[in-house]
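Page 47, continued from p. 46.
Same chain as before, 440 aa.
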Amino acid sequence: MVTTTPTHAKYSALLTDIERGTIKIPQFQREFVWPLPSSAKLIDSIIKGYPVGTFIFWSTHERLRAVRGIGGAVFRGTPDGSPTSFVLDGQQRLTSLYAAIQGAKIVRSSGVVDDFSQIFVDLTATEHDPIVVTDVASLPEGSWISLDDLLNGGTRVSRNYADEYLENIDEYRNRLASYDFPIVKVTDAEIDVATEIFTRINVGGKPLSTFEIMAAKTYDESRGFDLAEKLSELLQNLESIEYETISDAIPLQLIALILDGECGKKAILRLDRDRFIDHWDAAVDALASAADYFRGTYRIPVSKLLPFNALLVPFAYFFYHHDKDKPDPQQKLLLEDFFWRCSLGGRYSASVESRLAQDKNRIDRILKGESPDYDWGIDISPEFLVRNGWFTPNRSFAKAILCLYAYHEPKSFEDNAQVRIGNGWLKQANSRESYSKASS
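Result:
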């Protein structure tokens, strides 16, 4: 059962733990977006003693993919044997606090640089005015102090200010130093529970995908494994053969089938990190073999033409366990039967994960040269084709028919030139008209 423990900490302890690597921001958190005025308002609230919300930390010995630094600061890895507190709620506030107190320069995705050292305290302000500001152009010289000087300047800086401001300098410094940030620590939670907590807290945001969770869970700096980077490499390699449009779920489903025999979300999330990493390269090779097989044997030139992306999973599973480059004649016939039954029968139009798990058993039989049993039928009668052959570019049944055309290398009605089918071509708004120009 999940345990939650209320606690608290001063800003100095929070910043120290961030730099030590015992508080981390998981990579599935969104980018730090607070601008300078929002950060100034946060510091203003702290000085005034206002509540600024509770930080929720997930304390775990898991080592997840995490934000590596803020501004110019690069954070350490968590010390061996120590738990990590991953921020589930309060990332924007905590990052803002760190950036403001450290005077960090944050490079935004647009290239704009926000300089968080440009946050100041107005020593003439009353409790009803903004005390922390970002613009001091209109304030008299000597009536304001930078946040850095307020916290770190000590006696040396105080000598530069009139006596009437010294009490405020000491008071504001003490208020910041003594402010207790409320914290709730979540312990005894698996990663899927922790990310569910994150999703429920951020009800206005997009729920985390299985891939985003696995990218965090399987990150291993010592082995140089970053799932997000590995997927990018896979898609770059597949791009050369125009099979780069596969979803990020495909390699996860494949590895889960290999290791667990199931490929639903729960099965994927319970995969052991080291075993997942150990099998990644072989699984990627199997996916490449499946794509090559579709291109060479069935003459399906691009991934956009596949009736279902999920078809790559059972075929990659076959090549993962097949110790030869090509299936033998009996296996080839059985795989062809399997492919067309799935494509024309709408096999993966619903309940994809459970059907993949069932079809894993069918591929196991094909590996042995045995014909599987099928519990769905295929109607290819002219009457059925007339009733169901209506066209939309993304309809699996229409794609299956187009795969048959592609096998016969269609020619243009206009000049008998071979029609080149590409992922970009298939995305065109007039693709229906383009298809109608092709004939076998």
